[in-house]
Amino acid sequence: FARNDYDFIIYEKELEDLGITIESISEPGDASTPAGYIGRRMMQVISTWYSKNLAIEVKKEMQKKVENGGWPKQAPFGYVNRRDKNHAWVEVDPKNGPFVTEAFKEFATGKWTLESWAEHAYSLGYRSRKGNCIGRSKWSDIFHHRFYLGET
Q: Does a structural domain hold residue 43?
């Protein structure tokens, strides 16, 4: 029903106030009895634990991937995801990578605004993965992303 204690209690109460009872085919029990009540609460606690534990395990695996040179998502602009049979990693995109380096150098001169840099990049043919203009907010994200400092 819910993987979060708060949501479970709130929605269960709202449904109860509307005269709606929650029934489970896979977890039978009458919540109006003491045994059914405790059974439902125990199942909710287990669901919450499962969700929280899964989040921890996923974070561990993502961290392990980063420590092994990989990246848990699509590589940032200027990099590409690579994979072989046993490993996945990111490496500099031969087309966009050098331009990202140039972008950092040029933007550091103070001659550019985010808007003017976005227009300049577009005029040179640099596009997002979907073929769109890389806008000023995306360039701001790039210039502030710790990944480009070598911090993964």
A: yes
Domain count, the chain: 2
Distance CA 46, CA 38 (A): 12
- In this prediction the pTM is 0.59
pLDDT digits (tens, 9 = 90+) for 22-46: 888 887 778 888 988 898 889 889 9
Q: Give me the torsion for CA of 9, 36, 33, 13, rounded to 10°.
A: 10
Whether 98 is in a domain gets the answer: yes
107 and 130 in a single domain? The answer is yes
What is the rounded distance in angstroms from the CA atom of residue 16 to the CA atom of residue 12? 6
Residue 148 near residue 112 (C-beta atoms within 8 A)? no
